[in-house]
UniProtKB/TrEMBL annotation:
The gene is ispF. InterPro entries: IspD (IPR001228), IspD/F (IPR026596), IspD/TarI (IPR034683), ISPD_synthase_CS (IPR018294), MECDP_synthase (IPR003526), MECDP_synthase_CS (IPR020555), MECDP_synthase_sf (IPR036571), Nucleotide-diphossugar_trans (IPR029044). Its cofactor is a divalent metal cation. Its EC number is 2.7.7.60, 4.6.1.12. Residues 250-402 form the 2-C-methyl-D-erythritol 2,4-cyclodiphosphate synthase domain. The keyword Transferase applies. Residues 250-410 are annotated as: 2-C-methyl-D-erythritol 2,4-cyclodiphosphate synthase. Transmembrane segments: none annotated. This is Bifunctional enzyme IspD/IspF. In the C-terminal section; belongs to the IspF family. In the N-terminal section; belongs to the IspD/TarI cytidylyltransferase family. IspD subfamily.
């Protein structure tokens, strides 16, 4: 075991982090919010997510951030309230130069190892930071990678394929890339002295300087936000995360209609109301309760009233529709559902519903087992339009919300 590993086990290694954030993000565009590292994802600037990941990591001792001189106010706002001192340093014209300047700024802190990370990789997780720290040796850096999974093509003339490149042994490099501090600082200084300024990552500089670089497992989630679309997707991803842990509330709706025929009363929401006609139907033709039954079943994908009580079955002839509602409530409860509220609208020219509303609410309270403030029964005419307007029948619409166990699936 080398000295770095021994000290790391004893937690005696000083770990510094460089976050490079001085680029202009030209490929992503600015969208009125400044360069991409300051654009908002999940309600915070991109770089705030990155800073939080490192500021909250227990093994990180010092953080230096390379920023563009024009971004001072944006950076201060993004870093405000992190509760951790950070060195901010003006970056250079290239990523390589920004990294070097931040390394120089850290030299006074004498860290043993340093992790160098893109400010625009906001989905960095603590486990990956640990893997990189643990992968660094006295004489070797650590590079997080993911295996290339697309087939690789080499372009020839115009847009024609010249050949297929084997992807065996090929990996995409991520950050944070970790190194013994002094070795990577020296490599950067030597590269600069040699006039080499086009390295796109720090592992390349380490390789150029003769340092071995060990591959460690990266993460497909640890994407670099390069294009405008990457930022839109990152925002959506965090939006989806915000849904994590929300209660599994589901809404069902139901609709039913029955025609009038000769008779002397209608049954609506469990209440018999004297009328000069009755509603025709196999059961008691209670449109309100039929719509309610469908709404309840809809909250758990359990079919509709006809699935459970086929009109062809003689046993439901003249049956009180309360049976249907109670059956649907049973199905909801079997699945652990708790009814949050029910709302029924009856649509008819007559009879008048208002005088019977209280009795109807009492019926529903009994059937659903919820308090009256969670039950709504409304009525409206159809302004004399259509079949309802011609008093040929009554329609009902029901909406129900049910809270099921667990949380909203991702
Ligand atoms: N002069 C530079 C250039 C880049 N970076 C940083 O290096 C990281 C990765 O670089 P890249 O995605 O290429 O960012 P930009 O250079 O900003 O993007 P573009 O090339 O589209 O302008 C970013 O966090 C970026 O801010 C930097 O600190 N200094
Ligand atoms: C360092 C880097 O993130 C490794 O993948 C990447 O090379 C930097 O971004 P660029 O677009 O290549 O400048």
């Amino acid at each position: 075991m080398n000295a770095l590993h021994e000290n790391r086990r004893a937690n005696r290694v000083r770990v510094a982090v460089v976050i490079v954030a001085a680029g202009r993000g030209e490929r992503a565009g600015q969208a009125g919010e400044g360069p991409k590292q300051y654009r908002m994802i999940g309600g915070k600037p991109v770089i705030r997510h990155t800073l939080e990941a490192f500021a909250g990591h227990g093994r990180v001792d010092a953080i230096a951030v390379a920023i563009h001189p024009d971004d001072t106010a944006l950076f201060e706002a993004a870093a405000d309230g992190l509760g951790r001192d950070m060195i901010s340093v003006h970056g250079g014209a290239s990523r390589q130069e920004s990294t070097r300047l931040a390394l120089v700024a850290l030299a006074g802190h004498a860290p043993e190892i340093v992790l160098i990370h893109d400010g625009v990789r906001p989905f960095i997780e603590a486990g990956l930071v640990d893997r990189v720290i643990d992968g660094i040796a006295d004489d070797a850096g650590a590079l997080p990678v993911v295996a290339v999974s697309d087939t690789l093509k080499k372009r020839g003339d115009d847009m024609y394929v010249e050949g297929t490149v084997s992807r065996a042994g090929l990996y995409a490099a991520q950050t944070p890339q970790g190194f013994p501090f002094q070795a990577i600082l020296d490599a950067h200084e030597n590269a600069r002295r040699s006039g080499l300024g086009n390295f796109t990552d720090d592992a390349s500089i380490a390789e150029w300087a003769g340092m071995r670089v060990r591959l460690v497992e990266g993460s497909p989630d640890n994407v670099k936000l390069t294009w405008g679309r990457d930022i839109v997707l990152a925002d959506q991803r965090l939006g989806a995360n915000a849904m994590r842990g929300l209660p599994d509330v589901r809404t069902g709706n139901g609709y039913d209609v029955h025609a009038f025929e000769e008779g002397d009363h209608v049954t609506l929401c469990g209440v018999d109301i004297p009328h000069d006609r009755k509603l025709s139907g196999h059961s008691d033709a209670d449109v309100g309760l039929h719509a309610l039954t469908d709404a309840l079943l809809a909250t758990c994908g359990a079919g509709d009233i006809g699935t459970h009580f086929p009109p062809s079955d003689p046993q439901w002839k003249g049956a009180p529709s309360r049976i249907f509602v109670e059956h649907a409530v049973g199905i909801v409860r079997e699945r652990g559902g708790r009814i949050a509220n029910a709302d029924i609208t009856l649509i008819c020219e007559a009879p008048r519903i208002g005088p019977h509303r209280e009795a109807m609410v009492a019926e529903l309270q009994d059937m659903l087992g919820i308090s009256v403030d969670r039950i709504s029964i409304k009525a409206t005419t159809n302004e004399k339009l259509g079949f309802i307007g011609r008093s040929e029948g009554i329609a009902a619409i029901a909406t129900v919300s049910v809270v099921y166990p667990g949380t909203l699936p991702e």
